[in-house]
């Protein structure tokens, strides 16, 4: 059993039920995430991606006051609710973490002391062929985490050749994006692509026998790009980052585990440009009279990666990287000069 393999040597918590048998997901960078969030007594934390509940269980093993668990996948929410039945500190909210501020406000929560988001898919989602995330077993080309909106099959049927090529290149770093897009458009003129097996075979045919011998399945990047587009994963991350500066209390931690270089760049850029407030200087643009104080600073510069021991135990952690930032005391919204003057005059 996947979960049991870890419970033996987890140093995060001595509690026996830290790992659950209702999930196949092995939490990634678990110890590092818990340490980063510094879960002190009385804290309110948010696990924005409950998934199999690995982080949630580890955090609840600490003396925190409350854990808000969010997930957009009804199956993950059901797992969270089952845990909440015996854990009064756990509040479960079904929805997208891009709506974090609204979800918290509706629950009557204004400020939290830490937020963690573990991006992407859980093993439970990946290994269920009926969800259509994986090329390893044939299933419908669905890929929606919450069953809402267009499916992957819809995108493959509707997008024109250039949009498909752009999607595969931008979200999948797929080097053969154009050739694959062309093959999809040609193929759908005959019959729509509706099964994961059909898409996998098409990509393999475009890439030829050399790709079939490569370490990764030739369709890996195309599947990743489609999944990210179907679920607007970059848009969700941008909205989460924007919300984090408004809901985190001073000293609060933001921990993001990502598996895709584009997502990691987004997090890095957000923190280092302070959410776009510190734009790159140019000699044509005069420096502002007063640089706004940063709202987030790195807890530790650079990326935290899984240890060799974790990689041996869980190869799926391979591309994981953790970044952690701390909310400063700077106001969430910079007061405009005019607004400040008006307030002083009042
Ligand atoms: C990698 S898993 C999280 C695993 C979890 N950390 C654990 O230890 O079991 C990612 C989870 O995030 C959820 N998810 C992804 N994007 C989301 C979003 N925008 N809003 C809410 N949940 C999301 C997925 O449905 C999935 O259950």
Task: Give a topology summary.
Elements: H1 2-7, H2 30-37, E1 44-47, H3 54-60, E2 66-71, H4 74-84, E3 90-94, H5 100-106, E4 112-118, H6 123-126, H7 152-158, H8 161-172, H9 177-188, H10 196-212, H11 220-230, H12 233-247, E5 248-258, H13 261-272, E6 296-298, H14 308-313, E7 321-327, H15 337-345
Helix pairs in contact: 8-9, 8-11, 9-10, 12-13
The protein binds S-adenosylmethionine.
Into which percentage range does the β-strand content fall? 5-15%
Q: How would you classify the helix and strand content by structural class? A: alpha/beta
Query: Number of helical runs?
Result: 15
CATH superfamily annotation of the largest domain: Vaccinia Virus protein VP39
β-strand number: 7
- Report the bound ligands by name, code or SMILES: S-adenosylmethionine
Kindly state the mean pLDDT as a whole number? 89
Reported by name, the CATH topology of the largest domain is Rossmann fold
Return the string of H and E elements: HHEHEHEHEHHHHHHHEHEHEH
Low-confidence stretches: 1-18, 336-346
Assigned CATH architecture of the largest domain:
3-Layer(aba) Sandwich
- In whole angstroms, the N-to-C terminal distance is 66 Å
The largest beta-sheet arranges its strands as 3-2-1-4-5-7-6
What count of structural domains? 2
Largest sheet: 7 strands, mixed
What is the helical fraction, as a range of percent?
Answer: 40-55%
């Amino acid at each position: 059993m996947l979960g049991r393999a870890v419970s033996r040597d987890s140093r995060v918590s001595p509690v026996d039920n830290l790992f659950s048998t209702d999930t196949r997901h092995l939490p990634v960078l678990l110890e590092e995430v818990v340490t980063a969030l510094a879960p002190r007594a009385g804290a309110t934390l948010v696990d924005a991606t409950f998934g199999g509940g690995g982080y949630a269980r580890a955090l609840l093993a600490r003396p925190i006051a409350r854990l808000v668990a969010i997930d957009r996948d009804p199956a993950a929410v059901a797992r969270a609710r089952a845990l909440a039945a015996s854990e009064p500190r756990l509040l479960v909210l079904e929805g997208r973490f891009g709506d974090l501020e609204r979800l918290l406000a509706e629950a009557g929560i204004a400020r939290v002391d830490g937020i963690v988001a573990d991006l992407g898919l859980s093993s439970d989602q990946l290994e269920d062929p009926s969800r259509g995330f994986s090329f390893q077993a044939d299933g419908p080309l669905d890929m929606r985490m919450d069953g809402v909106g267009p499916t992957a099959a819809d995108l493959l049927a509707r997008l024109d050749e250039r949009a498909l090529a752009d999607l595969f290149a931008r979200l999948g770093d797929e080097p053969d994006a154009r050739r694959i897009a062309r093959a999809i458009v040609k193929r759908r003129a005959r019959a729509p692509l509706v099964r994961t097996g059909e898409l996998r075979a098409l990509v393999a045919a475009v890439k030829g026998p050399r790709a079939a011998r490569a370490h990764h399945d030739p369709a890996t990047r195309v599947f990743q790009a489609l999944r990210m587009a179907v679920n607007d994963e970059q848009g969700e991350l941008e909205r989460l980052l924007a919300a984090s500066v408004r809901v985190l209390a001073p000293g609060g931690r933001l921990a993001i585990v990502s598996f895709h270089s584009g997502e990691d760049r987004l997090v890095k850029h957000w923190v280092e440009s302070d959410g776009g407030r510190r734009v790159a200087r140019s000699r044509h643009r005069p420096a502002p009279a007063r640089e706004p104080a940063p709202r987030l600073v790195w807890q530790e510069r650079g990326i935290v990666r899984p240890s060799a021991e974790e990689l041996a135990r869980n190869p799926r952690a391979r591309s994981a990287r953790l970044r952690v930032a701390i909310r400063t005391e700077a106001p969430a919204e910079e007061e405009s000069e005019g607004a400040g003057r008006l307030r002083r005059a009042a």
